[in-house]
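Feature request, filed as a ticket because there's no other form

It would be nice if the structure record came with a short human-readable summary line next to the tokens. Right now we just get the raw output. Example of a typical job, pasted below so the devs can see what we mean:
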Amino acid sequence: MIGSIKGKIVLKKDKFLVVEAAGVGYKINASTDTLSKAKKVGEDVMLWIHTHVREDALDLYGFLEYAELEFFEMLISVSGIGPKGALTILGVTSIETLRKAIGTGDTSYLTKISGIGKKTAEKIVIELRDKVGKENNNREGSLRDELDALEALKALGYSQNDARDALKEVSPSADTNTKIREALKILGRK
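Raw output as currently delivered:
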């Protein structure tokens, strides 16, 4: 199996990039976080790889951070969550926020992710809670602050994706009002 690929980015699209290594171009599916942090076309990159083999395909999923690869592999270990669904989940918010939601059993946060229903959210919590570790009440409050900030930004007319992208850049320990102010500054720069 392929564990990592280091090479030059020759193509960068919305959901994947092509990395040329030793004369071979590898199409690598990636999370929005990895794609946004990946360098420009023509520059070198090193990605941690998950090789997903199916009867009719061999797909590569790449991540800049090893922790993101580990979390991705935990998500796909849950029955009903495939690699594309796991990428969608990772594209919504930071790994730390997802760990908090799973650790505190906050299925309402997970159901706000496109394609995740109540049963799937409960299954994720049940199967991964012990793996991510139970979180304390302060972190649960922090997660509530993020949900409240997200709802406030949506009420102000921002799309859910834009609001979540901005909140990813805000300190996870900030209170609701600070998260909203910081996110508005970020959104104002775009």
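Something like this underneath would help us a lot:
The chain has a mean pLDDT of 84.
The radius of gyration is 17 Å.
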